[in-house]
Design brief:
13 strands; alpha/beta; Rossmann fold
Length: about 500
């Protein structure tokens, strides 16, 4: 018999006629067993509660989810959606489809999870608040928002058109295929935003900063050569070198500290511009004539939202006074508001023509002149940006009431550049064409397409690039002009190529 086992047995079971020793041994053993079991149970509970709580705090998931009993998906009827919306406590419903996919970037592949979401997804989750680079995508584009880990593994960043991303989604069905296309549907996408995850918001931001820096370094290196990880033996010196750590700081966003005012901010172009400028760190003020939309927007965003009739000088002065008192001034004005008014120029009523000049010329003058007053007091450089139109240089039939004030606006833009350039105030415009918006709505698109005997899709792609120009493209043009410190008195055309509408 093993010596240790023999000694333990002798102390546990006494041969004495007095059983007190045996009883005490059993009590002591029982206490140790109970205490150990209790400790094990408590630790297991805490570990499980952590996982359980993280499942419920996952920012990519809503408060409640409806999942299929079998298969990957299901469809809700209109009646079922109405029933869900009528339940007290449900504010927003979002439809989501999820699939495991393969992402390819150049010669690198990665298995990942793809979520296809609708426009309500950012309201049922906190995903948009975790986007640390870029912005949340607009519906209808081949755009994706990726996790920092995916970006790091595949070495891609934002809007990197030189390194396109391709996603491969398994096709449903059975049997054997003859090629890759037989098994997968593929699509080339553009990454427009990056988000980070963590047990808490602060942990997610830390992880995002580190991964963002790493991805930026890898992408920069691979533009000219191949990236190689540092040898393990050198990692300690790099990670714990205090002087080097002191040098590593999060890069300041391009527009951080800039106050940007956008008029007509709730239309297609205004909304796209707001999201883009916000993603680059700007403090954005949203102005709009629609009081109801202003109230709705105030409940959704933290930005300053003001009701303002830009055709009324008093309304403009009140709004800009609030802006100055809140932020201390204005750095960039994006004068975007306007209305599309048509009619034969000889037959149009004078009231309509005058109203079009109020909406499409004097509204811009009201906002620009008030901005100049503030910028002169600030005594720092500033920027005026105007939404002009191809009608300013290429009149369209029966569209004179809109084109005439836009022509005047083109000259107004250049006049501000001439008069205030010496103060460091720049003035530029964007000349856009055929943008789906409140001005160019579905009815107008159908009417114009019919007149030209083409489909609506062909009409919207009627340019040299055969590609529809979208509100996001106009927003990028505004951004480009905002950061181009040596450009003034310029008009940037965004129309996919239209020689007839180009500037002479």
């Amino acid at each position: 018999m093993n010596t240790s086992f023999y000694i333990a047995k002798r102390y546990l079971f006494s041969k004495s006629s007095n059983n007190a020793i045996n009883i005490m041994s059993f009590i002591a053993s029982g206490g140790v067993i109970v205490a150990s079991a209790a400790l094990l149970i408590v630790l297991s509970i805490f570990a499980g509660l952590k996982e359980y709580s993280l499942d419920f705090s996952n920012f990519t998931d809503p408060d409640l989810k409806i999942l299929p009993l079998g298969g990957k998906s299901f469809l809700l009827s209109d009646n079922e959606l109405k029933t869900l919306n009528s339940i007290e406590g449900i504010a927003v419903i979002s439809n989501i489809i999820e699939e495991r996919i393969v992402i390819k970037s150049e010669n690198k592949n990665l298995l990942a999870t793809l979520k296809g979401v609708d426009e309500n997804y950012q309201y049922v989750t906190q995903i948009d608040s975790m986007v640390s680079q870029g912005s949340w995508f607009a519906q209808g584009n081949n755009d994706v928002v990726s996790g920092m880990g995916v970006s790091n593994n595949l070495s891609f960043g934002l809007f990197n058109f030189l390194k396109p991303l391709t996603i491969y989604v398994p096709k449903p069905g059975k049997g054997q295929g003859s090629s890759l296309n037989s098994y997968f549907n593929s699509e080339v996408v553009t990454n427009v935003g990056l988000f980070s995850v963590g047990d808490s918001l602060s942990a997610a931001k830390i992880a995002g900063d580190l991964t963002e820096t790493n991805a930026r370094v890898i992408s920069s290196v691979e533009e000219t050569s191949n990236y190689k990880f540092i040898p393990e033996k050198d990692l300690f010196d790099v990670e714990y070198w205090s002087l080097e750590q002191a040098k590593i700081k999060k890069a300041k966003k391009v527009l951080q500290g800039n106050v940007v005012v956008i008029t007509g901010s709730f239309g297609a172009i205004g909304s796209a511009t707001y999201k883009l400028f916000k993603s680059y760190g700007a403090e954005v003020v949203l102005l709009d004539y629609n009081l109801q939309k202003v109230k709705e927007m105030k409940s959704k965003v933290k930005e300053l939202c003001l009701h303002c009739d830009v055709t009324n000088k008093d309304s403009v002065q009140r709004a800009f006074k609030i802006i100055s008192e809140t932020y201390g001034g204005i750095d960039i004005l994006i004068s975007n508001a306007g209305t599309a008014i048509g009619g034969s120029i000889a037959e149009v009523d004078d009231k309509i023509l005058r109203q079009s000049f109020e909406d499409n010329f004097f509204s811009h003058q009201n906002c620009a002149s008030e901005t100049i007053k503030i910028m002169k007091k600030q005594n720092i450089e500033g920027c005026l940006l105007f939404n002009i139109s191809k009608q300013s240089v290429n009149p369209g039939k029966n569209f004179g009431p809109y084109g005439l004030p836009k022509s005047a606006l083109l000259n107004l833009c250049k006049q501000y550049a001439v008069d205030y350039g010496s103060l460091g105030i720049r003035s530029n415009g964007v000349n856009a064409d055929r943008i789906r918006s409140g001005l160019l709505n579905d009815g107008m698109i159908k009417s114009r397409a019919k007149a030209r005997e083409v489909s609506t899709d062909e009409y919207m792609r009627g340019n040299l690039l055969l590609n529809e120009v979208k509100a996001d493209d106009v927003a990028k043009a505004f951004f480009h002009l905002a950061v181009s410190k040596k450009t003034t008195g310029a008009v940037l055309t965004v129309d996919g190529g239209n020689i007839a509408a180009s500037l002479r």
